[in-house]
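Final report, closing paragraph on structural work. Over the funding period we assembled a curated collection of sequence-structure pairs, and we close with a single example.
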Amino acid sequence: MHLIIDGYNLLHAGRSLTQVNSIELQRERDGLIDQLSSYRQLKRCEITVVFDGWQGGWNTEKREMRKGIELVFSKLGEKADEVIKRLAKEKGAGAIVVTSDREVSRYAERMTVPVISSDRFKERMEMSPVKIEKGIEQDEEEERGLKRRGPSRKLSKKERRVRAALRKL
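Its predicted structure, as stored:
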């Protein structure tokens, strides 16, 4: 399993956007990397986090490894969305994209890559140590008892891919 994460999207998941200076932003990125590193150790998966560098980045795409997490900063003039799309196409169905961006989600779904919203992944990431300790492996929807009723009980392909991806998380 290879997670491709929209970095700033996940960083700001579940909160309103506020002006953050570069020092605070770096501190928040470091905190996110620490969380993802812990998650990676629990789940044994590869993680690539893509950050925007299109407004104040480098002339070329910058890649680095930190705490077992691959960080990608898009080049000047290129948005992280384009990098995520390229990675989703390269990795194919073995990857899971974490973003709340509709355009990236649609593209990944066309490539048959499951997409998990940033809010949903953040919730999973924060709960995973508790779940692993208790041995809970059920899907969120199944825990809440949300089952389809009526003549069409079969879920869509998209929803089946998402649920399979969530079970892996």
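Residues 2-168 form one domain. Residues 12 and 46 are 22 Å apart (CA to CA). We thank the funder for supporting this effort.
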